[in-house]
Predict the structure.
Amino acid sequence: MTASSKQLEMSRRAREGSPWTGLWAVVFKEMADLLTSSRMRILEVLILLTAVGAVYAAMSQIRESIGRDPFLFLKLFTVSKPPIPSFVEFLSILVPLIAISLSFDAINGEFNRRTLSRILSQPIYRDALLFGKFLASFFTLALVLTVIWLLIIGLGLIGLGVPPSGETVARLLLFLLATIFYGGVWLALAMVFSIVFRQPSAAAMASLATWLFFLIFWNILAGLFANIISPVRMGLPQEVIAQAQWQIALARFSPTFLYGEILAALLNPAVRQVGLGLLLPLLPQGAIPGSPLPLAQSLLLIWPQFTGLIAATILLFALGYVLFQRQEIRA
Amino acid sequence: MSKPVIETRKLTKRYDRVVAVNNLDMTIHQGEIFGMLGPNGSGKTTTILMLLGLTEPTAGEVRVLGLDPARQPLSVKARVGYIPDQVGFYDDLTAVENLMYTARLNGIPRKEAMKRIEEALKRLGLGEVMDNPVKTFSRGMRQRLAVADVLIKQPGMIIMDEPTQGLDPEGAHEFLNIIRQLKDEDITVLLASHLLHQVQAVCDRVGLFYKGRMGLSGTVEELARQYMKGGYRIELEVEGDRKAIERALQQVKGVTEVAYLGRNRYEVRAQGDLRAETARAAVLADGRLLSLNVEAPSLDDIYVRYFQEVEHDRVKQAA
């Protein structure tokens, strides 16, 4: 290490004050901006349509089973009436879109408005600006999702006339949390792209392309790679299982897949196994099908997926953080 | 001389292979208006960013108000206002809302902030439009808003990067008056620009930047004396014997160069205002003095001369 870089290291370590000075000022201002922006108006309409449409469809399907199903409320979220998809199907598309639309212009927007150097010349660190923007988007996303969630439960209460059980509420709360963090991944991704690309449209396109890649192509590619890594030569069951395990391991790199697994376990208490169970429904599950798992067991099942989503959010944010710290702020 | 508020010693910034700022030594004193002059890419903005701790120096030392911007960026940024080149605001927010954000980032309590914001906006002639969204503002209004924006934190020093660029002549003139008022409040102003006559009009001292170095610095007169040798240009119109007049003019003390421009007109280069002396010499040489004009050295002349010379030296060194 040269003398000058050592000196630099020293000065970095000795940085005065908290990196979060001014954080809440950024969060409040950004949230106010997001909540009053026109894109929020569009999202609100979209959300309302989705919630009402999905609940209407689900309601007409599940009316007949009222009184028999202890997890009736969960059905509200998962049951579909073709051609209207179920609410969770809607969500897995809508959440990434909302998240991307909230943060694709977070940093490059400041660049283009030429406000970045003015803001950074105030007594705050870059950390506060980036984290503040992330938190503002994250809180906004959480707010939006909580509103949809409450809306559906409210509509369900009116439509079904049966209050949800305690466990149902717990499952729904965890489902909401998982959905928020699933959005967090896309939020952090769009933010990274907003640092990398100077054009907001380029950042939006890159985020959407990544999302489509994971939504459509990654599962196909996972199957292909699994076939290459662990081919089925003799048609033995263990070969088939080995290949399926590879495929799942690869597919789990996709946040969409992880989210799907979490939803399956949380919203359908009868699901006893995720991953293999989803891919190979004919495999013996070692339990009587139809008997619901207690919440703790369901949670145990998808704990790795849950933490995986949170970890992905943090990792992506950290990547954006490093990129932003290194960026020259002059236009 | 009062105490220095900015001091740099052997300040250097390298981007990969490009040296943006090269061993810069600069001292700026309390309460003065200092103009950084130089072509684009001469290292002015990079120097400013290092002064604010927004970019870390590769080598060398900086002190701003006695603080090291790399170690104490928050204290420096709390005391120094910065108006960047082509400053931007949030267009959908009003002037007050924009400044309130700045105040909150500076940790100023809301009530106090509101007081300071109203004061600053009124002072800069934006009192009428303070609740209008900034997107309705003209370029000149934005520039004044930028000054109000830095005044919120009651700075000891303001750094401006190309503040009058893109303003119409009236707007620029107004803006220069604002800068003069800041000086009256003992606020040090550092001004980076390439609009020379404006810098000359307002700055106490200037520094010429070229390829990351400050080649010359001092007051305009000092620079003219040191650098231009004959800073003053006197033009005489005299009828009479050309040779005699030329000889007489050359003998005046302080004259460095005499040239005949044709049609009885002579150009004299001198170290001071030698109108009386040259007129006397011309008359004593039996000339009929018809007109007499003097041109004080302008920053343009110094600037052009300086860059010609550095370019010349560079070519010579390369050869």
Observations:
- Chain B has two domains: 4-225, 230-295.
- The interface with chain A takes residues 15, 45-46, 49, 52, 54-56, 58-59, 68, 70-75, 77-78, 80-92, 101-102, 104-107, 146, 149, 153 of chain B (CB under 8 Å).
